[in-house]
Amino acid sequence: MRSLIDITDFTTAELDELISVALDIIARPDEYANKCRGKKLATLFFEPSTRTRLSFEAAMYELGGNVIGFSEASSSSAAKGESVADTAKIISQYADIIAMRHPKEGAPYVAAKNATIPVINAGDGGHCHPTQTLADLLTIVREKGRLNNLTVGMCGDLKYGRTVHSLIAALARYENINVVLISPDELRIPDYVKDDIIVKNKMSYSETASLEEAIPSLDVLYMTRIQRERFADKDEYERLKDSYVLTPEKLTTAKEDMCILHPLPRVNEISVRVDEDKRASYFRQALNGKYMRMALILKLLGEANTPKEQREGEGLVYDEIKCENPRCITSTEQELTHIFRKDGNGEMRCIYCEALKK
Ligand code: NCD
User: Fold this and answer.
1) N or C terminus: which one in the chain shows less Cβ crowding within 10 Å?
2) Is 129 in the pocket of ligand 1 (CB under 6 A)?
3) Residue-range definition of the domain harbouring residue 62
4) Does 279 lie in the same domain as 136?
């Protein structure tokens, strides 16, 4: 069974194939209008969403399929204490494919291990968001015409911003990518992204707190929201929330063809005055998300019988203790035996949320 939990579950060839299918869907939508007739997508959203859930639903309808699901945890049996594992087993009997968003890191992985249908991670806590990355890749291709030879600035909450973590993992696959990480000190990229992805793949990168300094060199600027809901300390959020605000004035030193992305929702980090700038690509990016989700649903339903157990293999260590990350799914699922695996530096990481075992 094939699922998409982490963007690295797909090879570079598979990412390129998804982009090709999405471009074909854009060119010939009628050819795809009945591809999923009789199939059901279940959208299990335990956390708020506008674009991701509705673009998944629109994607399935445009493929001729149907949608069931819920949009908040309080209207599901999770409110009664049902585990993610049980929910996945039940939904497998009602639907053909699941898209799940959950505040706990690793929850979609647990769902995929228990479901008998493909599971798509639609965002798990501050961890990953692979389908946003699919939208981002298609947007870069459509706006810049390439996925290599790019200097990509990522600005804002790089610590909790799951879209950035997944995008970096995808860009690591392409040639000559230079990543400029722009954040306040408190919100720098987590070690599992820096060590296991950036350093391990020998990506060229730099870190700075200054958006103004970084802007002139960028081909792509990926702005992100400061993730209020992930902060344990609300005063820290208040202090950091307006760290970066992109304005037309700040764009005067940017390249003429720099492309501005944002997974959205936007709070304050991009002035609405930027929306009129031809470089502002974030609304087109949201539409691209629908096409990539169509391509993804087709791929996973087409490969439903391919046997592939993700992230299994050597170096796994089973342990009875819980992960120390309070946002990890192991902190709430009673039945989970904790599993670690060795990372590139020989250190043990939780397989669900990738936190280091201290
Ligand atoms: C992002 C998310 O949920 O992680 N939004 C999205 O899916 N388009 C970014 C965010 O919430 O800031």
Assistant:
1) C
2) yes
3) 7-129+288-308
4) yes
Residue 235 domain-assigned (yes or no): yes
Residue 355 belongs to a domain: no
Count other Cβ atoms within 10 Å, centred on residue 316: 13
Give me the pLDDT at residue 71, please. 94
pLDDT computed for residue 307 by the predictor: 43
pTM for the whole structure? 0.94
Per-residue model confidence (pLDDT) at position 171: 98
- 132, 157, 241, 267, best to mutate for ligand 1 pocket (most atoms within 8 Å of CB): 132
Q: Which residues of the chain register pLDDT less than 50?
A: 305-310
Number of domain units in the chain: 3
Between the CA of 261 and the centroid of ligand 1 the distance, in Å, is: 12
| DSSP assignments along 268-334, one per residue | SSB-GGGGGSTTB-HHHHHHHHHHHHHHHHHHHHHTTT----TT-STTEEEESSPPS-TTBGGGT-T
- Secondary structure class of 199 (helix, strand, coil): helix
Question: Ligand 1 mean position to 266 CA, how many Å?
Answer: 9
Q: Which has the closest alpha carbon to 230: 126, 122, 331, 332?
A: 126
What one-character-per-residue DSSP string does 303-315 give? TTT----TT-STT
Half-sphere exposure in the Cβ direction for 318 (13 Å, CA): 4
